[in-house]
Amino acid sequence: MRTRVCISIDTEFSIGGAFKSPDKQPVAEPMVWCEVGGRSQGLGFLLDQFERHRIPATFFVEAAHRYFFREQDPMGAIARRIAAHGHEVQLHTHPCWSVFQHGDWWERVRREPFQDEFFGRAVEDSVRLLRQGQQAFAEWGIPAPTVFRPGNMQHDDALFAAMARCGIAYSSCVGLAVFDSKDPRYRLYSGVHRRHGVLEMPVLTFQDWQLGGRRHLKTLTIAGTSFDETRLLLERAHEQQVPLVVLLTHPFEYVQRRDDSMRTARSNALHQNRLARLCRYLDDNRERFFPTGMGEAGSALQAAPDERNVLLHGSGWRSIRRLAEQAVYDRYGSWALSRQGVPA
Description:
Elements: E1 3-11, H1 30-33, E2 35-36, E3 39-40, H2 43-52, E4 58-62, H3 74-84, E5 88-93, H4 105-111, H5 123-140, E6 147-150, H6 157-165, E7 170-171, E8 193-195, E9 198-200, E10 205-211, E11 214-219, H7 227-239, E12 244-249, E13 255-257, E14 265-267, H8 269-284, E15 289-291, H9 294-301, E16 312-313, H10 316-338
Parallel strand pairs: 1-4, 1-12, 1-15, 4-5, 5-6, 6-7, 7-9, 10-16
Antiparallel strand pairs: 2-3, 8-9, 10-11, 13-14
Helix pairs in contact: 2-8, 3-5, 5-6
């Protein structure tokens, strides 16, 4: 059995500090393209790596930003560009953007600062947000989304009921180390699991270390996991016949920056190297691993989903080495950015 591997990229704009000060403006394309010296170190870097190693990926494209970007729609061109490269474009929603539909949005944010939560949201509200996203895809002229991922991995049982009402067949809502709803029905580490008729494909959560009776869980991301850790997890997933491994990343994780405008930024060689090595590894080991999009994976696995909830174990010493490596590189990056003339 080959283990399906889905590299998923949450592709989104930034509020840009507007919720802290109404004088600040959200940031659109720079957060996705992440240009440094005229070259895209974000989305452009990702598309180049996927093309070089023949890796189909899944881009979860945020759609609720249209509540702010009413006259222009900068994400439409990005979504079409991704689709033209042969990748899946699926739906991602950050509810916080919907507050911009109200003229008194600033007062609403001051009264209710937690605008970005799906957890605890009424089913009807979630249905409206999902349908807004479906309408965006229709207007962008790309295939309707079949997979949904909420902002901040926030989920609850009501969200799955909303997805079922909207005809969304698959989801990737759970990443336990990012957000834990405390609902035992959604304490999912791996595998595929049917909830309200929706097939959930969680981002892999693993145990990276244990000290006495205390264990530490981590969700599998490019920015937070070394390549050595990721390779070990893939090998252990294959050994234990875990049918699907989902990884999470974002375009902006491939640069170091002072702010979301990217006016002062540099490529993040550490993260870029992790992604490049992963793509090369998957390309070289296709007899064991099957890189695929999440919609395709859901379609292939829905008839007989493997609902085993396997908790994979990483390596404590690899985790320590990754933490040290990350700390050194972040310190160096801060120094390098300060050399560009912007104080730390």
